[in-house]
Write a structure and sequence with these properties.
The protein has about 300 residues and is of the alpha+beta class. The protein has eight helices and 16 strands. The protein has two domains: about 110 residues, Aminotransferase class 4, branched-chain amino acid transferase, N-terminal domain (D-amino Acid Aminotransferase, Chain A, domain 1, 2-Layer Sandwich); about 160 residues, D-amino Acid Aminotransferase, subunit A, domain 2 (D-amino Acid Aminotransferase, Chain A, domain 2, Alpha-Beta Barrel), CATH 3.20.10.10. Helices cover about 30% and strands about 25% of the residues. The two termini are about 15 Å apart. Bound molecules: 3-[O-phosphonopyridoxyl]--amino-benzoic acid.
Length: about 300
């Protein structure tokens, strides 16, 4: 990128130095808002419609009105990528509750704010994509759905941040998060899968993980490969005795996980099915998606 990035903020494309949110925005004061992380490859935005549908659903769930139609927001997203002349990268689309008073009542925030950043993200070091991730089981549990639905991709990520701290302090890159019952829910920003005897297992969404879009893509691709995918409750035991383990997420894409709590998973190397899936995912991501229209 040659010039300073342009950020979409409430209808305008602004240089980063001018793209500012008020200290009275409830997105900051209370984590009151929703977001999406979206990738684009080769000038096309991957699964854009699915991400926008999830954003509107998250917003609806917290009674937040996004002040743009679906089509307007889709256009703003594509225009932001085009304005930055990026072919491959990452979009952070954020809707905050907007400016209000010092008091958590969201009904005192007259208008939500929308901002869109198009840039890049690298979640794990490049060598981890070759060798696989080290995971640590976190003592921090995923919140019960009755506390806050895990399907709301809200601006309050402290639960995940605390789990990530535990993972890093424990010598790993990623943390396995359990639900209140002790079943695996997901990782701090990724969904988890294991391979055993030619079948793939992943926790059901009801276990407390986000219904990840990359998770859905992985299930589609595995089904195409003729590999059965079974949604079932998993415990740490299931990961310890698995032949392979991999994680999926927009930022992570598809990545092998080879260690849990200092124990090797399988032979401690990315497994053959994981590698096949990584290749299929790259192929799909680089050849499909909503095209960005770049300025001539
Ligand atoms: N679980 C959680 C809690 C997430 O936040 C996923 C699963 C995977 O979902 P998708 O739809 O992306 O396959 C996520 C999404 C980051 C980052 O900055 C994390 C995500 C997305 C974008 C950026 O770490 N996680």
């Amino acid at each position: 990128m040659s010039q300073a990035p342009l950020i979409y903020l409430d209808g305008k494309l602004l240089p980063e130095s001018e793209a500012k949110i008020s200290v009275f925005d409830h997105g900051l004061l209370y984590g009151d808002g929703v977001f999406e992380g979206i990738r684009f490859y080769n000038g096309r935005v991957f699964r854009l419609t699915e991400h926008l549908v999830r954003l509107y659903e998250s917003a609806r769930s917290i009674c937040l009105t996004i002040p743009l139609t679906f089509e307007e927001l889709e256009k703003a997203t594509l225009d932001t990528v085009a304005a930055n002349n990026l072919r491959d990268g990452y979009i952070r689309l954020v809707v905050t509750r907007g400016v209000g008073s010092l008091g958590l009542n969201p009904y005192q925030c007259p208008k939500a704010s929308v901002f869109i950043i198009a840039g890049s993200i690298s979640l794990y070091p490049a060598e981890k994509y070759e060798k696989g991730l080290t995971m640590v089981t976190c003592a921090t549990r995923r919140p019960a759905p009755a506390a806050l639905s895990p399907q709301v991709k809200s601006l309050n990520y402290l639960n995940n941040v605390m789990a990530k701290i535990e993972a890093i302090q424990g010598g790993g890159e990623e943390g396995v998060m359990l639900n209140e019952q002790g079943y695996v829910a997901e990782c701090t920003g990724d969904n988890l899968f294991i391979v055993k005897k030619g079948k793939v297992y992943t926790p059901p969404i009801s276990a407390g993980g986000l219904d990840g879009i990359t998770r859905g893509v992985a299930i589609e691709l595995l089904t195409e490969l003729g590999v059965p995918v079974i949604e079932s409750n998993l415990t740490r035991h299931d990961i310890f005795v698995a032949e392979e383990c991999f994680l999926t997420g927009t930022a992570a894409e598809v990545i092998a996980a080879v260690v849990l709590d200092r124990r090797l998973i399988g032979d401690g190397k990315p497994g053959p099915l994981t590698q096949k899936l990584v290749a299929k995912f790259k192929e799909l991501a680089n050849s499909t998606g909503t095209p960005v229209v770049y300025p001539a």
